[in-house]
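Backbone shape codes
____________________
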Amino acid sequence: MKDHFRFKALAVACAVTMLAAGCGSSSYDDPVPTPPAPPPSAPPPVDPMAQEDAAASASVAGLIAFIQTVLASLTQETNEPRNIDGITPPVSDTTEPTSI
């Protein structure tokens, strides 16, 4: 009978020990903090040459206005080449020719 009592006492002691060990807290229970949201990005700067290219590609009148502006701004001291790769000349079968 004493052995039976010792076995129950040992089983209760083991159960209490396991329950006590399982109730402990750890620092890993805290949720991982989320990183702060990045600040809203500013819109990209407007490229004036891209705007001119878009206006010149939109219509024949826009292309003529672009050419007139470029020719009017040229002087002997500021003759710098301007890249026109972004311009797709519009085509019109109904527009009358315009002098530049």
Summary: DSSP finds three helices and no strands in the chain.
